[in-house]
């Protein structure tokens, strides 16, 4: 049984910037695919998919400038860059290049991108950041987010709460750390709330009276609450 090719088959390894005769800009896209182009021409040849890749041409400086203008990431307010399948280092570097240009983004989703360190990235206006299902091991590896209000870090590999106090002077109200090793630390909730006095909600649960108890006096710390 032979599958017939779809009309779009010849475009599946192209970014939208590489498709001719359109005026779509980066800030028009809510869920763009931003990783660099797909397999090499040699690999496509061995796959029997050489027809899917247009021959790469040398781009002039003018064409590169035009492509950068077309991306227009600087004007994005809300952007979903999840599930990018960043399988190669050059794709990760291109991804970080785009993140550095998000100077106006307020809501950003970066779910399941195998990210390990974004500490060199600054998102000056970001109020809501979702980096669930990545490979962060420390709060120190997160981007600079001075205006953050809602931060979701579920299903990473954050071992301890070291570095969490860096968010003490931000307007952070809601934090999700579910399914991180640090969640099993003794006095977990009390330690988080004592480090972040402005925090109102942790792991979807509002701040409780026992969360405000001094970490060395409350008998509640001897208990294990399973939710």
Automatic annotation (TrEMBL):
The keyword Magnesium does not apply. Gene3D superfamilies: Ribonuclease Inhibitor. SUPFAM superfamilies: L domain-like. It comes from Uria aalge (Common mure). Keywords: Leucine-rich repeat, Repeat. This is TILB protein. It comes from the Eukaryota.
